[in-house]
Design goal:
With 101 residues, the chain is an all-alpha fold. The chain has one domain. It has 5 helices and no strands. Helix 3 packs across helix 4.
Length: 101
């Protein structure tokens, strides 16, 4: 059965949406093109790795379009590379010296 048809059948089950069917297709079917649309962190990570800016699901799909039919593999390689993380911008706290107390 083609992966698109298998995903469509999975999504007919109540409670299984696009994200869950993509995750199942990646792992169980070995679908190299299944992108987890609806993931909370994934679009920002892909956007940061490829453009240096955060993006949403639509932007992520536009950025990954040239890599079809290997979009999941590209996302996986980006996450393993370490480039898919925005720099931290939180305040730096000084190291407290508790020996004087």
């Amino acid at each position: 059965m083609p992966p698109a048809e298998a995903r469509a059948r999975l999504e007919k089950v109540q409670g299984i949406g696009v994200w869950t069917s993509a995750e199942v297709a990646q792992r169980a079917f070995g679908d190299a093109d299944a992108v987890s649309v609806g993931d909370f962190h994934l679009p920002a990570a892909v956007g940061w790795a490829l453009t240096g800016e955060r993006t949403d699901d639509d932007g992520m799909l536009r950025l990954l379009a040239p890599y079809a039919p290997h979009r999941h593999r590209v996302v996986r390689l980006l996450s393993l590379s370490g480039r898919a993380r925005a720099p931290r911008r939180g305040p730096k706290l000084p190291i407290a010296d508790y020996r004087a107390f």
